[in-house]
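Risk register update: the risk of archive-format incompatibility is retired. Evidence:
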Amino acid sequence: MLRLKNKTERNRQELIKALSKMKYEMTQRKNMSINLVEKKINTLGKSETAFNTFEILKFFFPHLRKAGRIYPDVIIGKEKTGVSFALGISTVNRGNQSYLKQTLNSIVSRMTPSEEKDSVVIVSVADRNEDYLKSVVDMITKRFKRQLRSGSLEIISIPAFFYPNILHIKQSMEDSGRSERWRIKQVLDFCFLMLYAQPKAMYYLQLEDDIIAKKTYFTKITDFVHNITSKNWFYIEFSILGFIGKLFKSEDLTDFVRFFLMFYKDKPIDLLLGDIFQVKMCNPGETPEKCAERNKQIRIQYKPSLFQHVGIESSLPGEEQYSKDIYY
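Archived output:
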């Protein structure tokens, strides 16, 4: 009888301990939501749609066909979906110089609370340097904690296996092919980010990690998009520089990515953007003047520009750039 009583007491204590452990783990998971750093391997759960968007990469890159699921290595945030706007920022290590904090501060601080709720800013770390990834994560989790908690800001990291072999060659400053590889990688970085953002929002805005935005830029964008008379626009330019400030309909992103991947070795992505218009929108035998007129109707340029390039230290090591948007 005494032995049975002791066994019952032990069972009760073990049950209390187990319940306490479960309660502790649930609390820990809740507290750790802001510090989430996960390796995405074989369990995607609600991200299955995003997984499907990456499948087109296997058509262009044979080395990915045995890779299983393609997905970002690291995700910090709540993987927010169902919003109107996704804003994509691809970032790489620029040595001792970084403009990312200034860029993010400009982008997120100039949104109203309702605009922040209806959008997600995605920072894509496209760099193999783990120290740089850690520095980006540390900076964002400290400086933009509220945005991470709300889901309006998240960080992803592009897996190294995504890139073809040509980009895995160790580069030197004297390497004559490094500029070409840098350009190729930049196209691929943008494509990966666009595919990740595609299921999240109705529209996708491409930005870079060394820009600033005008005050009320987001209000101006939403008002312009909602009041635009033509519904057949190809994309809208909110900056004339490169690939900065280009707004796309998310439903069109897969087509853009397919085209970019067909010619990613041939031209920078901003020039490919002009080429896709010629291919898709200019009819055979049509005069250049007629095509140019249609260009104005569906490739819409917003003025004044809402974004300015502020970086001097290029993402291509050892180079500097001083380009400015004259319409800003």
